[in-house]
Amino acid sequence: MKLDNQTIERMAHLARLEVSEEEKVSLLKDMENILSFMEKLNELDTSGVEPLIYLTDEVNVLREDIASKNILPADALQNAPHHDDSYFKVAKVIEKI
């Protein structure tokens, strides 16, 4: 596949990029190098290679979510700098208009 300036301009437009003429030349070279590399990869025989779906053989490495010791509201409020009987008190961050 051959690229030209019109293709680079279209790609820059789709990506919402402003590209100078010097950058177009550089992008054109880079994109052609990428495409030639991809063509080289297409030459490889991968008929006997199974597709890689997962990087590891692990099925599920997460632990079970088991509830343990419950914290009572009074215990949680002990370390709070400001609180009343049931709630934490925090500074007001939103003012009414």
Describe the structure.
With 97 residues, the chain is mostly helical. It has a domain at 5-42: Histone, subunit A. It is 38% helix and 0% strand. The chain has helices spanning 5-14, 21-42, 73-77. The longest helix has 22 residues, at 21-42. The protein is elongated and about 75 Å long. The chain starts with a helix and ends in a 20-residue tail after the last helix.
Topology:
Elements: H1 5-14, H2 21-42, H3 73-77
Label this structure with key terms:
about 100 residues; mainly alpha; Histone, subunit A; 3 helices; about 0% strand
- CATH fold name of the domain at 5-42, please? Histone, subunit A
Write down the CATH class of the domain at 5-42. Mainly Alpha
Mean pLDDT: 87
Order of helices and strands: HHH
Largest sheet: none
Strand content: under 5%
**Proportion in helices:** 25-40%
Gyration radius from CA atoms, angstroms: 30 Å
Pick out the low-confidence regions.
none
CATH A-level architecture of the domain at 5-42: Orthogonal Bundle
> Which shape, going by the Cα principal axes?
elongated
